Amino acid sequence: MAGAARFRIMGLDPAPFRHLYGLDAGALARHGVERHVVTACPGFPDRVELRDGVPGETMLLLNFEHQPAATPYRARHAIFVREGANEPALFEDVLPEVIRIRPISLRAFDADGRMVDAELADGTALEPIIAAMFGKPEIAYLHAHYAKRGCFAARIDRP
């Protein structure tokens, strides 16, 4: 895409979730986690591999702090992680399909973790919005959220 700002989207580090893989339902419940078997695709977006789960795979539904900044914008919400996911996906200058196929709330933050801009758009229309946001020097990074349920989808950074 000529003239557009470059960006990078990386899946979450799986390390904080690995201790949950394979636990029985009781142990998961003690961690506040639920196991779900994927029944339809799309429908269960994994935050490590940045893809929708396929029917039959298991996903862990858990609460995750995606915005740890010590500001009023500090936030956590439910996310899915594919049980067994071991490598975070990396996308450069392209949106993963899991984001492209959904309406997205794009939130822009400054270096201190304060939200300074936001847009709502169909995933297919995000690239020019990302470029415009990264064209503002005060914007340090972006968060994409699935607009329908408000869940954190991924962080978008400058390379």
Task: Please characterize this protein's 3D structure.
The chain is mainly β. It has one domain. It has helices at 25-30, 97-100, 126-134; strands at residues 8-10, 34-37, 45-46, 51-52, 58-67, 75-82, 90-92, 103-109, 115-122, 141-146, 152-157. The strands form 3 sheets. It has a 6-stranded antiparallel sheet, covered by helices on one side.
**Biggest sheet, spatial arrangement of strands:** 7-1-11-10-8-9
Q: Which oligomeric state applies?
A: single chain
What string, H for helix and E for strand, traces the elements in order?
Answer: EHEEEEEEHEEHEE
What is the radius of gyration?
Answer: 16 Å
Which band does the percent of strand residues land in? 35-45%
List keywords for this structure.
single chain, about 160 residues, mainly beta, 6-stranded antiparallel β-sheet, 3-stranded antiparallel β-sheet, about 10% helix
Summarize this, please?
With 159 residues, the protein is mostly beta strands. The chain has helices at 25-30, 97-100, 126-134; strands spanning 8-10, 34-37, 45-46, 51-52, 58-67, 75-82, 90-92, 103-109, 115-122, 141-146, 152-157.
Topology readout:
Elements: E1 8-10, H1 25-30, E2 34-37, E3 45-46, E4 51-52, E5 58-67, E6 75-82, E7 90-92, H2 97-100, E8 103-109, E9 115-122, H3 126-134, E10 141-146, E11 152-157
